[in-house]
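Subject: design request, 225 residues
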């Protein structure tokens, strides 16, 4: 879709942003408020999925706007979060028992999670010298995030409900919530590193977050209660 509108790196950052979701900073607190602590495990799995996309294919797509496929792949392989992921996976598979201090640190970090996300948005907006709204880019980003993604999830839910019946209705509600959260905030820092128009992404993240403050409660009240 974006390839018909833009011929420069804008189509790459649109593809990058459209596939992300703020399941951590935004989705997790909202899910806990609506569904209770029982939603933490499911939302954490959704967070893992979006994080893997952001730090693999998504980052590759963003880098391809200015680099060759080989250079973009090298940049992906250098991401520290991928190294941390595989190290954590190896530690888990090896059966190494971590001390209580690590779990206490992770528990205490939860309180700073949302604050750090908002700080990332602020840092991205602080770099904007001239607020030039690309209404076409912003509009298409919001359309994909708040209409296309929920539509895809609804189709999946309908297919599962009438055919496979793998998930229950409580999981359907969480899937809907994860489909309507705003664009992920950490894409701003990645775009800054890649010099891939971080100003545009900062505005998209900011506006999508503001929109979600009204959109998510509305959808939650209508369909998730």
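Subject: RE: design request

Done. Sequence follows.
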């Amino acid at each position: 879709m974006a390839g018909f509108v833009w011929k420069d790196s804008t189509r790459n950052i649109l593809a990058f942003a459209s596939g992300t979701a703020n399941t951590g900073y935004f989705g997790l607190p909202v899910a806990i408020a609506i569904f209770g602590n029982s939603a933490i495990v499911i939302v954490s799995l959704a967070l893992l999925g979006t994080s893997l996309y952001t730090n693999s294919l998504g980052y590759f797509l963003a880098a391809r706007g200015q680099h060759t496929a080989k250079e973009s792949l090298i940049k992906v392989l250098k991401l520290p979060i991928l190294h941390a992921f595989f190290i954590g996976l190896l530690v888990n598979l090896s059966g190494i028992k971590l001390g209580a201090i690590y779990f206490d640190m992770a528990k205490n970090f939860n309180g700073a999670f949302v604050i750090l996300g908002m700080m990332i948005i602020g840092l991205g907006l602080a770099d904007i010298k001239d607020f030039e709204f690309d209404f076409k880019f912003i509009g298409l980003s919001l359309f994909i995030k708040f209409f296309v993604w929920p539509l895809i999830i609804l189709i999946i839910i309908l297919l599962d409900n009438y055919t496979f019946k793998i998930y229950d209705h409580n999981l359907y509600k969480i899937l809907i919530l994860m489909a309507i959260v705003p664009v992920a905030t950490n894409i701003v820092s990645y775009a800054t590193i890649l010099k891939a128009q971080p100003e545009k992404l900062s505005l998209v993240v900011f506006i999508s977050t503001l929109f979600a403050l009204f959109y998510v409660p509305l959808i939650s009240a209508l369909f998730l209660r």
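Residues 31 and 37 are 8 Å apart (CA to CA).
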